[in-house]
Write the structure tokens for this entry.
Amino acid sequence: MKIAETRELDMTQLHKELASQERALLNLRFRKATLQLSDTTEVRKTRTSIARIKTVIRERQIVAAMKRASAAQEGKK
């Protein structure tokens, strides 16, 4: 999943996709351990996808915190 596609998802979809990718990574690790995985780059691609999803989630958390902080400052004035 590309970063542009990831950014189009809302938070619930992001969390669902994150859980799905983590499950897929677990399955890939089991397949690798049992020598049933033919394309070992799938593990790296899945880890990269997980990192992208976590990055977008964290970006949104930071933006939300900044908005709350600015709203609190506005309330003090």
Notes: Residues 3-76 form a domain with the Helix Hairpins fold (CATH 1.10.287.310). The CA atoms of residues 31 and 37 lie 5 Å apart. The chain has a mean pLDDT of 94.
